[in-house]
């Protein structure tokens, strides 16, 4: 019972002094303290006069050691990220520029079809002129659609980022974000900004 009280007091003291340490440093200091305590407990156990009492004391000391180490490991795993780290910070791994196709509208189709029909109507006579007009309208409509799509096409910049915690993300821009591979960046509410 006295060992449990001493262990609780030691853990409380450790919690107040270890706040300036990193979680790994806290774990190392705690492990060292637990091992020292275990060695002291084994010395006390060896002073027991009866064999059965020595064995029980050693088992109790080992049990306390195991519990304390398990608690220290759990605290290390549950510890928050190191102070000053940024969960939304990362590094640009690549910037890819692609052409984003524009969308054709009815205007391109109609204008191209009319122009094609007028040109087709200038060719031949009789049924040949009618066929040329229809073919000109179809070809003109297709050409008008493609011309409009090309006129409305834009560039798209995709910035690939790897965060400090290992996660990856991509951000699309319709303008040059002026970022290069290796730049330090931060995700600011869905907006990628240079750090």
Strand content: 15-25%
The overall number of domains is 3
The major pleated sheet works out as:
5 strands, antiparallel
Strand order, main sheet: write it out: 3-2-1-4-5
Count of distinct strands: 5
* N- and C-termini, Cα separation: 54 Å
Domain Glycine zipper 2TM: 107-148
Keywords: Membrane, Signal
Biased composition (Basic and acidic residues): 174-187
Subcellular location: Membrane
Give structural notes.
By secondary structure, the chain is of the alpha+beta class. It has 3 domains: 2-78; 89-99 and 154-194; 103-152, no CATH class. The protein contains 5 helices and 5 strands. The protein has helices at 2-17, 23-46, 51-78, 106-121, 127-152; strands at 89-100, 154-163, 168-173, 184-188, 191-194. Strands 3-2-1-4-5 form a 5-stranded antiparallel β-sheet, with no helix packed on it. Strand 4 (184-188) and strand 5 (191-194) form a beta hairpin. The two termini are 54 Å apart. 12% of the residues are buried. It holds the Pfam family Rick_17kDa_Anti. This is Glycine zipper 2TM domain-containing protein. Residues 1-20 form the signal peptide.
For this entry, give a set of tags.
195 residues; 5 helices; alpha+beta
Write a concise synopsis of the structure shown.
This is Glycine zipper 2TM domain-containing protein. Residues 107-148 form the Glycine zipper 2TM domain. By secondary structure, the protein is of the alpha+beta class.
